[in-house]
Amino acid sequence: MDAASTATLLAAFTTALVALTGYWINQHAKRREQKSRMYAEALQVIHSYEDLPYLIRCRPASDPETRAALAQQISDVFTKINLHQNLLLMDSHVVGQAYADLFQQTRRHAGPHRLEAWNTPPVATDPEMSGRAYFPYDNQPEQEICLLAMRRELTAWGWLLRPHTHRRIRNLRRQRTPWSEPDFMRETRARLLSPRGGGLNE
């Protein structure tokens, strides 16, 4: 093969390589945008789930119509959580499992919080709207783990990092310390929920 033929082949190879690289970059950018939107929506549903006790506590009345409307809202949130759990698991088992762990940890507090909210009379006056509901969640470590898995998955080589991400998440779970509600939080909750309790702004 003479020099001219070699130069032609090299030029063609370079052109093809540049085209393939550009195509890969564009496809990765599109996938990253789609995944980012999916992750943001999945996390937003968790926040909506956390807000359910507040919606129940601030319900306008205790009548069948109000209960039916709230029951539908609760059902919609659970449906969205199940949808996002399945979508994330299909996309990446590491991310899907981290999201499932976040939901399970949040659920441990959300159930008792909703029961507490249902057992509290509806808000009757405007002043009662200020600081009368207090429902803390011990899920910050799970949120951080879930965000870690999502961020690593969004990188260009996220699929190659999954084994390392899995090991790192496993170590973080082992390091998690048990959480107990601080005394000042318990005192604040007791004051807010007492019949004569005032708001946080008092």
Automatic annotation (TrEMBL):
Presence of the UniProt keyword Transmembrane helix in the record: yes
Source taxon at top rank: Bacteria
Transmembrane spans: 6-25
Protein keywords: Membrane, Transmembrane, Transmembrane helix
UniProt name for this protein: Secreted protein
